[in-house]
Amino acid sequence: MDLVALLHRFLPWIRRRRRVFALVGKSGTGKSFKARQVARRFRVDLIIDDGLLIRGQKILAGRSAKREKGIMTAIKTAVFANPELIAEVRQAIAAEQFARLLIIGTSRKMVLRIARTLDLLPIHRVITIEEISTRAEIAQALKIRAEQGKHIIPVPGVEIKRNYPHIFFESVKILLKSSKVLRKSEAEIVEKTVVRPEYGRVRPVAPDQPPARADR
Question: Which of 37, 43, 48, 153 is the most exposed place for a label (fewest CB within 10 A)?
Fold first, then answer.
């Protein structure tokens, strides 16, 4: 058996060209909620979301921006502004066998910055939240974020309880149906973890003032 055949047998992931995808949408529009479905549709192995490197149902490396107490600190964590965090995630990515990676961010500028910071390949395709969610779904996600300060992390609750118990709120299982872009991905039941970070918690306001909103 020649070398190429051996590589294809023992390293099946090399048959697929390594690519980087991005899921982009404004804060609170439901990106993390739809992340697992997008990953399944495009056969994504690794997800980068708010400072975390995720594979399947496990956090591999990083620090969740949702554990930060301040919004500015959370933003810096999400874009990997800390050299130690950059080194940790780069090392974890280098150690993984993968073909496709998904970066989640609030803008094209943000996901491009993350890709450059982590020495990833140029982004192959950018998917917007509007492509995979209806207006009603986005509006509902924004309402929940504004009124309740709830965020989603796309891993099971047991993983968040282990790493970030102070922000854990609840674990939910929801049936996700396919959208036009995700038509090749069948409807599935996925588990999401709802968290309430310090910076995203709603503060009491006067009756004539609008409810507090987090920027992320």
Answer: 43
Q: What is the CA radius of gyration of the chain?
A: 18
Task: Work out the angle at residue 156's Cα, subtended by the Cα atoms of residues 151 and 161, and round it to the nearest 5 degrees.
Answer: 80
Structure tokens at 186: 């069948």
**214 phi/psi in degrees, rounded to 5:** -90, 145
Note the Cα 101 to chain centre separation in Å. 11
User: Residue 126: which residues within 8 A CB-CB, separation 6 or more?
Assistant: 21, 22, 24, 108, 111
Q: Where are the domains of the chain?
A: 18-199
The DSSP H or E segment spanning 62 is strand 58-62
pTM recorded for the entire structure: 0.79
pLDDT digits (tens, 9 = 90+) for 69-83: 888 999 999 999 999
